[in-house]
């Protein structure tokens, strides 16, 4: 990737996301090294920068942070459309993922990251890396491609899913000892590597796959290693039945008993919480990753996002995975998040465009544990930012660029992506990854994987030979 000691971005329509949420219609930002050193209404009077970018006609904003990503699922995009969740897992997703090689894992991660960069994502939380995906290869790809990432090693010691016991595909099963040992090793090797861009987290499997003893062990280890955790919780009604029947409590009550609540936890989905549970999530500042596309496609339900925002729960956004979304485009995800709650609440004022931009930036930064370093364009913060081309049919006229971005935008309107002061995408061209090579390799590995796994993936319409 090309490296510049100083970059000046000028004449941009800057969404600062600072405490006052200032918008600078023709503002400038100066970057030195990996930090923002100046945000102003006029071009910097400091010495000439090594690189100047004229952002006329472009939105300049903090990079988008995807807080629930399955890197391995980019390679199995579209493998299980329009089927029920248990069928989706048992007969498609787990079977395919359970036949991965390390090289499949690396190819899928690179495909996913290339798509994320192209659509404006600068940082992400990968929620569950299985040993068969090859943690080292994935981390090396993050280092080389230049994104900011929390890579969570999968943790499990049982084979159920919610209240369905022993349904996991054999190739997806790992022992607790193996999971914990690999996480320990990866923490030593990769924690804060790549100039601080990589974190290593504990990725707890969903309810039914982790025993109470293991939950408590991981909470202690996360505290010992000063790292964070993520897990699916409340994605399905089966979760609610599981904790009620096995632990005589609700979802948040179970999380409290296990020690899982707090700022260092990111719960994905969080659909089936009652209001009193939401109040406790707010009181403990436990993070929720809202995944509207996945929740809609799998008919999981509507997360109570308006209530969460009202109570002060930290909410971020996640695209989830290739079979459940099926894209890794955070601008599309913002649009869904702003739209789906209005008819459900019968109230067009809930979850505004501004609020979903906050989820995708400030909320993501908080979920990463970097709220003081990312999420807004302010002096002293890391230079993770994007430029969005407004000279597009779908973004014309430019009466309200904030509205246009959320309600009419697409990730493919993104022009430039900068992470940690380094340019990853410039004028819509990747600088750190050969996308043609990535796509060729992905097609090859996907075809081999499907054949190896014995899964049939065809359209429902007849194919004529």
CATH class term of the largest domain: Alpha Beta
pLDDT < 50 runs, ≥5 residues: none
Main pleated-sheet profile: 9 strands, mixed
Number of domains: 2
Tell me the number of helical segments per DSSP (H or I, 4 or more residues long): 16
Question: What helical percentage do the residues reach?
Answer: 25-40%
Look up the CATH topology of the largest domain.
Answer: TIM Barrel
Q: Mean pLDDT across all residues, rounded?
A: 96
In short:
The chain is an alpha/beta fold. The protein is 37% helix and 22% strand.
Features:
TIM Barrel, 465 residues, alpha/beta, Urease, subunit C, domain 1, single chain, 17 strands, 37% helix
Write the layout of secondary structure elements.
Blueprint: E1 6-15, E2 23-32, E3 35-40, E4 51-54, E5 58-62, E6 64-69, H1 85-97, H2 102-118, E7 121-129, H3 135-145, E8 148-155, H4 176-190, H5 193-196, E9 198-204, H6 212-224, E10 229-233, H7 237-247, H8 251-258, E11 265-269, H9 275-284, E12 287-290, H10 292-297, H11 305-311, E13 315-317, H12 330-339, H13 341-345, H14 353-367, E14 385-389, H15 401-408, E15 414-419, E16 422-426, E17 429-430, H16 435-453
Parallel strand pairs: 1-4, 1-5, 6-7, 7-8, 8-9, 9-10, 10-11, 11-12, 12-13
Antiparallel strand pairs: 1-2, 2-3, 5-14, 14-15, 15-16, 16-17
Helix pairs in contact: 2-3, 2-16, 12-14, 12-15, 14-15
